[in-house]
Structure formats: C-alpha cells, structure tokens
Amino acid sequence: MDCANPVQTRDFYAALTGWEIREAYGCPAVVNDKGLLILFMGCDFDYTPPIWPEESGKQQKQMHFNFQVDNLPGAVEKAIQLGAVKATAQYGGEHFVTMIDPEGHPFCLCRK
C-alpha cells in the first residue's frame, strides 16, 4: 500500500485488525493468522490520497480493504479512536460502513 508514512499506516492497521506487525522486503508490514501479508510502502513521489467517492480526473483508490467484524458499531468507534474517519458518502446501509484511514485510503467495516 502506497503511503506517506508507512510505519504509522502499518501501526493503524495492526491496531485495527490485531494482525502481527512485521518487516518484509524492507517494508513495514502486517500479517494475519492465515498468512495474508500487507506491505506499507513509502513513495518516491509526493503521496496524494485517493478521493472517495471516486471522481473523474482525481486520484483514484489503489486498493480497498473490507474487514468483517462481529460488532459493526464497536468496530467503527475503534477505527475512529485509532484515527480513521467515517466517509461522507455511505452506501452500505446496515451492512457496512466506509471509513477513511489516517492516510486517506478508504476501507470498509462489514457486518458478519
């Protein structure tokens, strides 16, 4: 995942998910119990966060995580406490909430 501050972004997702903090291929990373590895990479250019919802001619998202949670309101509150914000545009109704991480990447918290 491209970001301006890879360690901070890795730490956010580690705290959000409870996944293990690692270094991999010279990058900060997290890994889940099934072996999914996410790398957080600094940019050699000025990082521009994506726009959500997407707009023509603006920076598009590079990825989008969906995390299944047992307690959707509790997970939203935890994400906010960790530095995320609720996206202005919401399309999930009772099923999911779109959040924006501290670097500006959108992700969803989805009811199991």
UniProtKB/TrEMBL annotation:
InterPro entries: Glyas_Bleomycin-R_OHBP_Dase, Glyoxalase_6. It comes from the Bacteria. Pfam families: Glyoxalase_6 (PF18029). Residues 1-110 form the Glyoxalase-like domain. This is VOC family protein. It comes from Caproicibacterium argilliputei.
